[in-house]
Structure to design on (178 residues):
């Protein structure tokens, strides 16, 4: 399952984020994520990005390269781009609740990729092979959503913290981020 686009929004009433992803095979997955699951994904995401970078370009500067790539991604991501839904729902019509998230090693399209294994309430496991840019995009989306939720899981990394203008959403209730 190759991810084409992510979409997400914070839902204040259940205090969860709803993350949707469409694939190149015209399938959509819809997932509810709790604060704990978002924390798990974000905590491992940066480390996995550094590992993926080091696998492609060995050397001591991998962490710095990943930081630079994240800043570039933040500045170039269009949060207003419309989300394109898919015709098939891969997990059913209703969003699945994610109970746990863990990273593993994987390979996607011949390149090192991160394997994100999501344990779902239904008892199924969803395994996503995420190339480094896709993993960074997912983490960026989750950082934005946790900021809207005011969960304070990680410091938001915005250009404003580096002295530049911020394009981070400012509302905290029910706003969609693409």
């Amino acid at each position: 399952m190759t991810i084409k686009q992510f979409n997400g929004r914070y839902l204040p009433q259940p205090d969860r984020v709803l993350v949707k992803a469409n694939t190149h095979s015209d399938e959509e997955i819809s997932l509810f994520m709790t604060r704990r699951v978002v924390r798990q994904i974000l905590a491992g995401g940066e480390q996995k990005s550094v590992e993926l970078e080091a696998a492609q370009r060995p050397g001591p500067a991998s962490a710095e390269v990943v930081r630079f790539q994240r800043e570039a991604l933040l500045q170039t991501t269009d949060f207003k781009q419309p989300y394109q839904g898919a015709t098939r729902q891969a997990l059913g019509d209703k969003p699945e609740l994610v109970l746990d998230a863990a990273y593993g090693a994987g390979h996607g399209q011949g390149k090192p990729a991160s394997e994100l294994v999501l344990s779902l309430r239904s008892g199924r496991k969803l395994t996503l092979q995420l190339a480094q840019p896709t993993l960074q995009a997912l983490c960026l989306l989750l950082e934005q959503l946790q900021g809207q939720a005011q969960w304070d899981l990680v410091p938001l990394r915005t250009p404003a913290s580096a002295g530049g203008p911020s394009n981070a959403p400012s509302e905290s209730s029910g706003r969609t981020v693409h």
About this structure: The chain has three helices and eight strands. The radius of gyration is 16 Å. The beta strands are 3-11, 16-23, 27-33, 88-89, 96-108, 111-120, 125-130, 176-177.
